[in-house]
Amino acid sequence: MSYTIIKNERLNEQYYRLEHSSGLTLLVYPKKGFNSIYASIGTKFGSIYSRFIHNGKEITVPDGTAHYLEHKLFESEDGDAFSKYAKTGASANAYTSFDMTCYLFSCTDHFRESLEILIDLMQTPYFTKETVAKEQGIILQEIKMYEDSPDWRVMMNLFQGLYHNHPINIDIAGSVESISEITPEILYECYNSYYNLHNMVMTVVGGVDPAEVLSIVDEKIKPSETIDTRVIFPEEPYHVVKSYTDQVLPVAVPMFELGFKEDSTDQYATNKELICTSILMNAFAGESSELYRKLLDQKLINSTFGHEYLEGLGYRSLILSGESRNPKAAAEMIDEAVRKLHKEGISRANFENARKIVYGKIVAGFDHKQSIASELMNGAFTGREIFETVDAIANVTADDINERLEKELDPDNSCLSVVKGE
Amino acid sequence: MSDFIRKNICDGVAFGSVTDDRFKIGRLSSTLIVPLSKETAAANALLFCVLTRSCKKYPDFTALNRKLDSLYGAALYPSVNQIGDHQTLTISVTGIDDRYVLDGESVSSELAELLCSILFEPNVVDRHFADDDVEQERRQLIENIDSEYNDKRLYAIKRCVELMCRDELYSIGRFGSRDDVEKLTHENIYSAWENLLGQSRVELTMLGNSDVQKAYDGFEKYFKDRPRTFHEIEHQQVTHEKVIRASEKEDVSQSKLVMGFRCSYFKNDEDCLANSLMSAVLGGTPTSKLFLNVREKESLCYYCVSRVDNNKGIMLIDSGVETKNIEKTEEAVLKQLNALKNGEVTDSEIDNAKLAIKNSLMSSLDNLGAIQSFYTSKIMRDNRLSPLKAAEAVDRITKDRIIELAQSIELDTVFALRGN
């Protein structure tokens, strides 16, 4: 088996891709002169994959199962992975998002041993009643930590205000009640349905030799049978659940997230769509925009103000967020600006500057191993080629942005989420 | 990558650089260092926010940001921090390397010029910064101070340190107090600018592959013929005979426990590394004593972490726990610390912590932001080892030295934020 090399001339960057015979997608991105290596294995199984059909059988798992599984996979019969990594010096971690679960390490020495540990931990599930029970106290404290986090709450409340049925409206870690229902059997069921190499991607970025990675994978990976698992999402109406939601938490400065829900399909957004959205938002709400200045002059935002695009299978929303002494007034001003934007479109001058900002951000991302790894992993799961954005941005026009705008920022389909003090 | 090279531009003004062509971004920053003082901390902090909002050449927030946008979204921002009993005030500019521009501009040279304009040619008329800039930044700085309460983990840590160091400059904090910020006059802010440029230590730093000759020249021209003074202050350490205990009630689901300790204070980089290693063995890694016992064995928490502030000679251990387990967690933490003091530590525990620290040191070489924090955090040390030299020094630290340093640790303050 040999790699395909994917290059970008403009940035003078390249990486290696291989669909390994075991089923695993392997992406290796050498960074010349780097001391460290960042390796990760991800499975396309996150918190929203709570209902699925595996080998013809429909399965629904308790909320928080993917995250619980992530914690427990770190342990195998002969001890936990942290203690094995301790011998190599690698710094290891794992995370569960809405869309995926990812296991990673970063090292400057003993790469081979560390990668072997990573592959082993993926392939040796070990769940017993006792080990599952032991984790409850720890995860309970993690859940409570998030319950008290205003940043997290303002976001989850927004998702609940935007989405009627889509599981993006459920906390990744689940709840105190839901995790008490998790059993070793459920964890094995999820493992068998989703921890299959055909559903998994390995990325290695940094001071690494692609040939070495391949030799370790060839040696350690046990091939997977082809997989038959299909996720089920409920129907989601176009309209938001409610236009306002709030929660009282001990905060000194209120926080808000204003989300604009969009039509979503069972397709991921394309690179071009993402680029256009990003340019649009930088032109509309970036630091030099008219809107930003007005909000600032009216003392409605501070430097925490920002925007992001939330996008995945069955959900797409544009979110503006920040701290504000008066979130409702800030939202009204944004709403007004959105209506004006739909009438006037973005100007050519704003477009040019916003295009440069987005290009600068993309270029900057290629300095960071972690950011490259996460783009590669995301790209593999969503069918987006990471270098495509660099060239897409050179060719995009103001008309493209205004065309994109037609499908975004519907002022009659938004929700304002606020976390405020007493 | 080159080593960190540092030379004097003139008395009290140094230029440090790490030349490295691996990166697509370049960083240029200017840091002014002064002793923390109740009289000036707030004015200095607000001044730096005001400075980065406009200058003579771009006399308005929007005009300045349009300029930055046109330089591929280059960033210009202030960072106000404290290093031990000193306040550090930094302005950084970062932008894409000239090799990657689309239209042949020289981003780095423009940014170098911009940094000088921001610092030396502010938007001032008759000792008066623009009203709008001052009021907007004052409001935002106050919101920034207020919002430190939003994150309960950080808030609890802040409260513990305030109590522990209440008789030391350290407790003034990097921004000074909210009250002080509110009361600042235009004259205070202008004086802060004059005094900072005349009475601080100045470090200009370039990381990456940028053309920063204009910044070097600008700094030389400005500082060369101006008389300068800088007094470093002696390290302060007020110890308490009895452990200070305090708690606050809060409507949250998880309680926070923060334990503040006094530990040995050093100005020598090797000794500081030994202190850090001791803390890593105790509670800095997923195989540390605190992680394995307080989290894994007793399932008391999700995190229980120790960290040393070598610039102050204190160590903090913090954890998020059930309210009913606050006392139990404190006991569990002290039990692990006592074990370390009694020499109950294996070679493999120490080797693991050494590997983790060396890994983190060597990894920092691949990230300009990490290189910057690495050298900045050691700005007050007698010597600053490179990451490579630091990693070698870690290897030489003995078990006896770790135990000796652990034995010098004394519990000073316990703060609990008690939830429901």
| Uncertain ranges of chain A | none
Number of helices of chain A: 15
Helix content of chain B: 40-55%
**Radius of gyration from the alpha-carbon trace of chain A, in angstroms:** 22 Å
Spatial order of the strands in the main sheet of chain B?
Answer: 1-2-8-3-5-4
Question: What gap, in angstroms, lies between the N and C termini of chain B?
Answer: 52 Å
What is the assembly state of the chains in this entry?
heterodimer
The CATH superfamily of the largest domain in chain B bears the name: Metalloenzyme, LuxS/M16 peptidase-like
Tell me what the structure shows.
The complex is a heterodimer of chains A (422) and B (420). Chain A contains 15 helices and 17 strands. Chain A is α+β, with helices and mostly antiparallel strands. Chain A has a 7-stranded mixed beta sheet with strand order 1-2-3-11-4-10-9, sandwiched between helices. In chain A, β15 (306-312) and β16 form a beta hairpin. The radius of gyration of chain A is 22 Å and the shape is globular. The termini of chain B are far apart. With 420 residues, chain B is α+β, with helices and mostly antiparallel strands. Chain B folds into 2 domains: 5-223, Metalloenzyme, LuxS/M16 peptidase-like (Cytochrome Bc1 Complex, Chain A, domain 1, 2-Layer Sandwich), CATH 3.30.830; 244-418, Metalloenzyme, LuxS/M16 peptidase-like (Cytochrome Bc1 Complex, Chain A, domain 1), CATH 3.30.830.10. In chain B, α3 runs parallel beside α8 and α10 packs antiparallel against α11 (326-341). In chain B, the strands form 3 sheets. Chain B has a 6-stranded mixed beta sheet, sandwiched between helices. A 5-stranded mixed beta sheet of chain B has the order 9-13-10-12-11, with helices on both faces. The longest helix of chain B is centred in the C-terminal third of the chain and has 17 residues, at 347-363. Classes of the chains: A alpha+beta (422), B alpha+beta (420). At the A-B interface, α2, α4, α10 and α12 of A face α2, α4, α10 and α12 of B.
